Amino acid sequence: MEQMDKIVNNSHLTFKNVLLETGFEYDGEEVVKTKTALFCIETEDGKITAVTPNDPHINAIDAKGWLMLPAFKDMHAHLDKMLYGLPWQAVSSKRKTVKDQIAYEQKMIPEWLKTSVERAEKLIGFLQSNGTHYIRSHFNIDPTSGFDSLKHLETALKNKEKTAGAELVAFPQHGIFYTDTAPLLKEVVKMDIDFIGGVDPYSIDGSIEKPMDLITQLAIDHNKGIDIHLHEVGETGVKTIGYLIDKTKENPGLRGKTFVSHAFALGHLPPLETERMAARLAEAGVGIVTSVPFGNTIMPIPLLRKHGVEVLVGNDNIQDHWSTFGPGHMLQKAKLIAALYGYSSEWALSRTLAFATRYVLPLDDKGNQQWPKAGHDANLVFLEASCSAEAVARVSPVRSLVHKGNIVF
């Protein structure tokens, strides 16, 4: 946008010719179009302070009629150990199990750490270029990494603090007891992090109860959230989810702060059992974080949402030794959801945007304008699109990003 590079550090910004959604147009009961109009937007000290009728003649940043939406949130990433920024490397077929990957990481992490600050910053920049301003990032905590993955990631985030936000998950990728990680986990939880993680407790550590008891107790004692990786399908996957649900119900302070990433077991249950698990997750306030897999595993996202389960979405792998297919683009993830579950109508596509923004939407389900309003955080993305439905369906080009009132580009 014109003038953006000149006023990026200003605490007060005014935008003109901003396209906003204002309501739905109906044919009978069917939404057939999203209404829009041009507005002026003012921000100050990281907040939206005014939304007023458009005045194209004022001295302001010209948004050129681009659609303004809430900036995107990637709720599952590994900024500390992506291969992004290194020469291209596809996934090796020699590493078939999680334990194979652990052995590979133990060999490679010392080398990766040498450039991890620079590469984390590059990866954040790539996510920002696609409209993401906020990231939940896991970081390895294990005997090979020690605290270095965290320290390097903190340095990268400090260098990006004006233009990107993050929350951090201590992730014992190599198991808690499979490798001697429990002492490190007990120390890292005292640091400035947000969540305690875990991975496949039965297949890696040989027990559901022992690692899960430690994770939940640390979270309770230090007022952290929980976000575990669970790739296991079948009985052990279901039992692990059930065990975490029970722990959360026993400790109400964990409600709304406890998540299962991947949770592939939910994609392999009979319909009635899936319904039951979705109801239990909702009752306990346990959320699911997914990268939206497809193929052998299709997650029951519509059913989870029907029951009120918070479903967060992230890219997970962008370019790493686990997978190379993460697009690094939350709109592409939203489009994938729409395609997988048949959300093709104007109304359904507009609702699917919620998976990219963590449920901040310009219009409510009935078409009432609810964003942006004075007092909302000035986290904004501008796209070359006519409405959010088109943005999702076509993965419309991102033209500008604003984080807490700071213009990123």
UniProtKB/TrEMBL annotation:
CDD domains: Bact_CD (cd01293)
InterPro entries: Amidohydro_3, Metal-dep_hydrolase_composite, Metal_Hydrolase, Metallo-hydrolase_Enzymes
Matching SUPFAM superfamilies: Composite domain of metallo-dependent hydrolases, Metallo-dependent hydrolases
Transmembrane portions of the chain: none
Gene3D superfamilies for the chain: Metal-dependent hydrolases (3.20.20.140), Urease, subunit C, domain 1 (2.30.40.10)
Domain Amidohydrolase positions: 219-409
Protein name: Amidohydrolase family protein
